[in-house]
């Protein structure tokens, strides 16, 4: 190409434009559609751009909820900080499957990229004035810039619905994104995907334009879609991200790109044909070019020379004077390397033709919404088109100071940083768009504004008919509302063009409405009236609404159903009316009204014939209002839609059992009875010792005393120290110890003063020291240790329990796990005991751990399923004050976050350590602190207040002082979540008593302090966070199990009495708190629970249960359950049976079928076939006359349908029959008819014998012989 610019710009202008050999066919942009971050349509998109909106946000709630399910079910729960900040599309799970005749089942399995692009492409075609009827069979091409990098929807299907993969295949093939549109609209032009990374969508538009020019297609749609399906930080990064997720294109502070999502499509057509066909023209593509970086600094590094060359090549192809380009939509990555190179390339391109400075504005949409990857180019293209159409330049976001590596002063370009009129250089506004791929493929395109010289005069007071339709009444009413909005915003609409666009360029569906009117004001009034009156006829208006369906309803004359014959007849009548209207050239109101009546009845009206010769053209008008519903994997929704219902709920019950028989006591060794002095002096201890001795047994009594000494007759005093217990054992000498009767809980709290006194853990401490002494003394023989308590458990529901006794009992459960020769069990009795029952229990050889006697009746403890009761009440209230102990722990912060999401509340987080001390060791401390701060910021961001307090919750004095402060500052405390707790795994033999007391303290003394201090005013609730360790004990965590048992006992009394207190026995929360330490989950009695599942279950439990409730999934293969002699608590047969039936997380709830289409009921065959339709297509409401292939059926689903039919009706139907009998009614008729014929063909053997006798072919003896043989 020769040098086209000399010093004389005017001369060079003429030389350049005289190069006719470079002139190419201009391409008109006749339709556009798109969805972008914070914009559901292009109107909102443009509005956001004009004000310089920054669209980078945190992940929207709807997106987060959708993808949380994936990570939770993959056992990868994330905190909010893990989700990338970017420019998000919202509601990627919504889709109008019914509109596209795609079954819900298939839609659920379609990649969201396919669904979203399908709707967008349809809207773009409709915006251009082209529907299926107009496009069917045409050489229309589909060009989609797309890459499926990152997590693919198919991976979700593989994980959670692998059985659906055969049906899911088309919906997850990349190429189907483009070809599905060709399939649905019967388009015969090329259909292809283009992947050049970041430049894909602009290259797709370039390719579409080239193939139109090459006559490979007559028109085309080009577009792109980009969704980050799993937008977590690690997945989203591509190596050039900015520090704060924002793109500061050309700014001195630029440090990389932000990321975004979007979808857009444009309809392209040769300009001369678009003018000829009366299409609306947004802008004109003058030309474009693409090239490759080739060898550069690196395979992903930009190449300045290549960028400059692609720009000049596009100018040459377009035949435009470069100096008339007054805006360039730059690629604009906002990186230190990319921005200076791009500006240098633009400058180098311009300097080949002009030395003018600062005449061309530059900007980049990336500054608003980050890098849309494959959709980046079309986003810039749509922005540029809208700027041309509106004749304004819009601001570049985040531009404060120019990049100091770019000399803008001497450059041809300047960064536009404000909203301003766009003055053309020459006659028409022109701009360029650049898109440079990470792959090295570069593309540049030149656009020019289009100014129409078509003027249309409209006759005053001429009658007009506008026809609107939709696939449902709701959608139709939404469409009418959109027309009202448009009429309100623009007072100068061409009514002729509007009616032409609505009537002749849109598809017409079963729900139809028309109105006859004179002018815009009257049209708006009529439409408002239609909405106000639910589309019903109002006096004085020439309008009607009706629905029509092909076919008939059995047993009734339904006016909405018409036959094929009637449709043909009324369509012919419509043709005749149109011919009359065209012939007269007058808009006769009566004929228009008759035409409208035929239209709403279902007639196929040739609207183009009515508009012929009037010079009408397509104008802006509302497109179809899709009725979107959620379409996602049903298995994921089923498991997660109601976490609470998917969780196991259990409660501990005391079940009446038969009393033991009178068994003789046979012991070879001695029996040791020990306890505090007051216990040993009690009647029980004396009677037991006396009876055992009378039975000839060797009984040793040990009494806690101030010094170690012998009282004679086998009775000893021993100090309550480690040495004291060793002394007692030494006194027994070489004799084996068969049984130890430990009276650690043989007392009760009865008076108010006693109930308020601090917990007495002497019984537990005694057992702790005894076990250690037995180990030190090397007592390795099998020993039966009976723990005697008085009313430790709430068995009948009327007792005043002593909660610390439960800690003592549960400590014994762990003893037996750590020391197999020390078998503990519990005997809890009241004052009405029978000494004979006590002796029988002492001699009992069974495996039951906990036995209780009340009023002479025997009870045992059992875990039973708690029925799932729907939540009964709201838990939290706006402005409520809620105390959370252990407030900086992982579990407590999950609870706090949940509370803030429910209501705007004030949260008092009490923690023994400060936030700075939250990390457990130096390697994790900073990260833990950062995470906790982020959680607190999230809570505050939700509108709730967080107040941190550092003190020991077990310090009742400190709690009392703080409570007084809270009362003054916040008012009453409404509820408590007692999450405080510590665990320090260690075997009993290796533990110091002081260490055990530290584990017991937050739960035992902490709960006691809370009850004591907060009893001044009633609470709405107190949730005690217990553990399933209290049920069975926990190897290596005896003190932790015992501490949680105290919570359960408090709740069993307080919860039953007032409903205020509930103790939740939790399994480990997966990957947080103590759950981090879990290695092999299968080794635990209860499977770890996902935090989101735990929170939902807690909310449900708090509103539905009282006292103690156990939450989680029980591992029925655990040795404590498979070996019943080891289990310290019985599990009901029902629970064990349910546990063996492992739930299938992929099984979704059964669908309910709702049938219509008959006023006379439905046959059994119709009902069964309807169920199969529902299962295969996912449609719950269905008419027996619906056509399989018109409600979403396809060849793959047809195979599944026939497979299911074969199971119900073997040999009755093959896949070819589905074309002949496509509806439930037709299939049922076919099946029943075939069955009847088969029955008619089966002759009764008895009839044959009788016939033989009658016609003489058989004798009586022969017939009798055959009958007896069954032949």
Tags for this model:
single chain, 1271 residues, alpha/beta, Alpha-Beta Plaits, Rossmann fold, 11-stranded mixed sheet, 45 helices, 18% strand, disordered N terminus, NAD(P)-bd_dom_sf
Characterization of this structure:
The chain has 1271 residues and is α/β, with parallel strands linked by helices. It has 5 domains: 24-449, Thiolase/Chalcone synthase (Peroxisomal Thiolase, Chain A, domain 1, 3-Layer(aba) Sandwich), CATH 3.40.47.10; 464-627, 2-Layer Sandwich (Alpha-Beta Plaits), CATH 3.30.70.3290; 653-865, Rossmann fold (3-Layer(aba) Sandwich); 881-1116, 3-Layer(aba) Sandwich (Rossmann fold); 1154-1240, Orthogonal Bundle (Non-ribosomal Peptide Synthetase Peptidyl Carrier Protein, Chain A), CATH 1.10.1200.10. It is 39% helix and 18% strand. It is built from 45 helices and 42 strands. The chain has an 18-stranded mixed beta sheet that branches. β8, α14 and β9 (360-363) form a beta-alpha-beta unit. α5 packs across α9, α26 (722-732) crosses α28 and α40 packs antiparallel against α41. The longest helix has 21 residues, at 564-584. The relative contact order is 0.07. The model is unreliable at 1-23, 751-755, 918-923, 1078-1082 and 1139-1149 (pLDDT under 50).
């Amino acid at each position: 190409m020769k040098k086209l610019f000399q010093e004389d710009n005017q001369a060079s202008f003429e030389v350049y434009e005289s190069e006719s050999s470079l002139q190419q066919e201009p391409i008109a942009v006749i339709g556009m559609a798109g969805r972008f971050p914070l914009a559901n349509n292009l109107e909102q998109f443009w509005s956001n751009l004009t004000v310089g909106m920054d669209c980078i946000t945190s992940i929207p709630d709807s997106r987060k909820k959708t993808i949380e399910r994936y990570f939770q079910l993959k056992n990868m729960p994330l905190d909010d900080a893990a989700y990338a900040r970017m420019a998000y599309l919202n509601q990627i799970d919504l889709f109008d499957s019914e509109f596209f005749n795609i079954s819900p089942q298939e839609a659920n399995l379609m990649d969201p990229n396919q669904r979203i692009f399908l709707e967008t492409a349809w809207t773009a075609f409709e915006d251009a004035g082209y529907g299926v009827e107009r496009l069917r069979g045409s050489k229309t091409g589909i060009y989609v810039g797309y890459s499926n990098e990152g997590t693919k929807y198919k991976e979700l299907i593989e994980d959670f619905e692998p059985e659906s993969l055969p049906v899911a295949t088309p919906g997850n093939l990349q190429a189907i994104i483009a070809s599905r549109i060709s399939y649905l609209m019967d388009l015969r032009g090329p259909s292809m995907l283009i992947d050049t990374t970041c430049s894909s969508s602009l290259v797709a538009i370039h390719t579409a334009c080239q193939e139109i020019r090459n006559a490979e297609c007559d028109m085309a749609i080009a577009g792109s879609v980009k969704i980050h399906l799993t937008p977590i930080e690690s997945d989203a990064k591509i190596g050039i991200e900015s520090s704060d997720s924002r793109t500061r294109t050309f700014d001195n502070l630029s440090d990389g790109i932000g990321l975004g999502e979007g979808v857009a499509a444009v309809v392209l057509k040769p300009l001369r044909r678009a003018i000829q066909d009366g299409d609306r023209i947004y802008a004109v593509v003058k030309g474009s070019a693409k090239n490759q970086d080739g060898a550069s600094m690196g395979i992903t590094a930009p190449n300045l020379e290549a960028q400059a060359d692609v720009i000049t090549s596009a100018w040459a192809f377009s035949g435009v004077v470069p100096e008339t380009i007054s805006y360039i939509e730059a690629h604009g990555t906002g990186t230190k390397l990319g921005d200076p190179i791009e500006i240098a390339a633009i400058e180098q391109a311009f300097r080949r033709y002009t030395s003018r400075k600062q005449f061309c504005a530059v900007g980049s949409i990336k500054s608003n919404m980050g890098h849309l990857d494959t959709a980046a180019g079309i986003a810039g293209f749509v922005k540029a088109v809208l700027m041309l159409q509106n004749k304004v330049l819009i601001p570049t976001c985040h531009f404060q100071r120019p990049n100091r590596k770019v000399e803008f002063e001497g450059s041809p370009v300047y960064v536009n940083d404000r909203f301003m009129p766009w003055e053309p250089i020459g006659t028409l506004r022109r701009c360029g768009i650049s898109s440079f791929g990470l792959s090295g493929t570069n593309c540049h395109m030149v656009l020019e504004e289009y100014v129409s010289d078509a003027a249309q005069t409209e006759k005053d007071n001429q009658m007009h008919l506008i026809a609107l339709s939709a696939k449902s009444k709701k959608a139709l009413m939404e469409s009418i509302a959109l027309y009202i909005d448009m009429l309100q915003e623009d007072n100068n609409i061409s009514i002729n063009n509007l009616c032409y666009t609505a009537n002749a360029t849109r598809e017409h569906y079963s729900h139809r409405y028309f109105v006859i009117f004179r002018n815009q004001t009257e049209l708006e009034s009529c439409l408002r009236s239609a909405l106000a009156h639910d589309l019903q006829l109002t006096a004085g208006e020439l309008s009607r609404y009706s629905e029509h369906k092909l076919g008939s309803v059995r047993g009734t004359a339904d006016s909405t159903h018409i036959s094929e014959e009637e449709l043909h007849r009324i369509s012919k009548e419509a043709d005749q009316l149109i011919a009359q209207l065209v012939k007269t050239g007058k808009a006769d109101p009566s004929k228009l009204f008759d035409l409208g009546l035929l239209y709403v009845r279902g007639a196929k009206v040739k609207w183009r014939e009515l508009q012929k010769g009037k010079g009408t053209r397509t104008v802006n008008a509302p497109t179809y209002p899709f009725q979107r519903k959620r379409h996602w994997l049903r298995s994921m929704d089923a498991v997660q839609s109601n976490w609470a219902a998917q969780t196991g709920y259990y409660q501990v019950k005391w079940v009446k059992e038969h009393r033991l028989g009178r068994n003789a006591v046979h012991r070879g060794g001695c029996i040791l009875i020990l306890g505090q002095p007051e216990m040993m002096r009690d009647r029980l201890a004396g009677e037991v010792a006396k009876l055992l001795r009378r039975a000839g047994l060797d009984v040793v009594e040990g009494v806690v005393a101030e010094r170690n000494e012998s009282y004679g007759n086998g009775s000893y005093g021993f100090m309550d120290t480690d040495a004291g217990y060793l002394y007692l054992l030494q006194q027994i000498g070489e004799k084996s110890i068969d049984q130890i009767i430990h009276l650690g809980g043989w007392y009760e709290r009865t008076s108010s003063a006693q109930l308020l006194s601090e917990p007495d853990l002497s019984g537990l401490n005694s057992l702790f020291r005894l076990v250690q002494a037995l180990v030190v003394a090397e007592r390795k023989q099998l020993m039966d240790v009976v723990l005697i308590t008085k009313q430790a458990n709430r068995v009948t529901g009327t007792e005043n329990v002593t909660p610390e006794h439960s800690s003592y009992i549960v400590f014994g459960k762990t003893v037996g796990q750590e020391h197999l020769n020390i078998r503990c069990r519990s005997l809890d009795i009241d004052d009405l005991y029978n000494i004979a029952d006590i002796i029988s229990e002492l001699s009992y050889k069974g495996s039951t751990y906990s036995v209780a006697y009340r009023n002479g009746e025997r009870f045992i403890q059992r875990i039973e399923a708690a029925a799932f009761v729907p939540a009964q009440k709201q838990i939290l209230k706006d402005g409520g004050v809620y105390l959370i102990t252990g407030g900086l722990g992982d579990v407590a912060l999950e609870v706090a976050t949940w509370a803030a999401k429910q209501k705007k509340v004030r949260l008092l987080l009490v923690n023994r350590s400060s936030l700075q001390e939250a990390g457990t060791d130096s390697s994790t401390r900073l990260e833990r602190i950062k995470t906790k701060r982020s959680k607190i910021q999230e809570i505050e961001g939700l509108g709730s207040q967080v107040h941190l307090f550092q003190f020991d919750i077990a310090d009742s004095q400190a709690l009392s002082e703080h409570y007084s402060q809270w009362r003054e500052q916040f008012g009453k405390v409404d509820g408590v979540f007692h999450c405080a707790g510590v665990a320090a795994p260690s075997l009993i033999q290796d533990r110091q008593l002081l260490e055990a007391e530290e584990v017991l303290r937050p739960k035992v003394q902490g709960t006691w302090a809370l009850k004591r201090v907060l009893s001044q005013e009633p609470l709405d609730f107190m949730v005690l966070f217990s553990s399933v360790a209290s049920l069975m004990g926990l190897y290596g965590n005896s003190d932790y199990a015992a501490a949680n048992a105290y919570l359960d006992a408090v709740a069993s009394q307080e919860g039953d009495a007032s409903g205020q207190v509930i103790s939740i026995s939790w399994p480990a929360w997966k990957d947080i708190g103590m759950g981090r330490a879990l290695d092999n989950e299968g080794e635990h009695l209860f499977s770890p629970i996902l935090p989101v599942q735990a929170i939902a279950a807690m909310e449900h439990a708090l509103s539905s249960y009282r006292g103690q409730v156990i939450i989680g999934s029980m591992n029925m293969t655990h040795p404590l359950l498979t070996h019943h002699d080891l289990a310290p608590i019985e599990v009901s047969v029902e629970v064990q049976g349910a546990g063996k039936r492992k739930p299938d997380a992929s099984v979704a709830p059964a669908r309910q079928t709702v049938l219509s289409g008959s006023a006379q009921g439905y046959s059994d065959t119709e009902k069964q076939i309807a169920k199969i339709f529902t299962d295969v297509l996912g449609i719950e409401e269905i008419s027996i006359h619906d056509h399989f292939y018109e409600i979403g059926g396809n060849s793959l689903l047809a195979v599944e349908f026939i497979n299911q039919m074969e199971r119900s009706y073997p040999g009755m139907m093959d896949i070819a029959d589905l074309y002949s009998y496509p509806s439930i009614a037709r299939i049922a008729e076919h099946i029943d008819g075939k069955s009847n014929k088969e029955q008619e063909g089966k002759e009764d053997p008895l009839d044959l014998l009788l016939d033989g006798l009658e016609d003489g072919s058989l004798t009586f003896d022969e017939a009798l012989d055959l009958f007896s043989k069954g032949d």
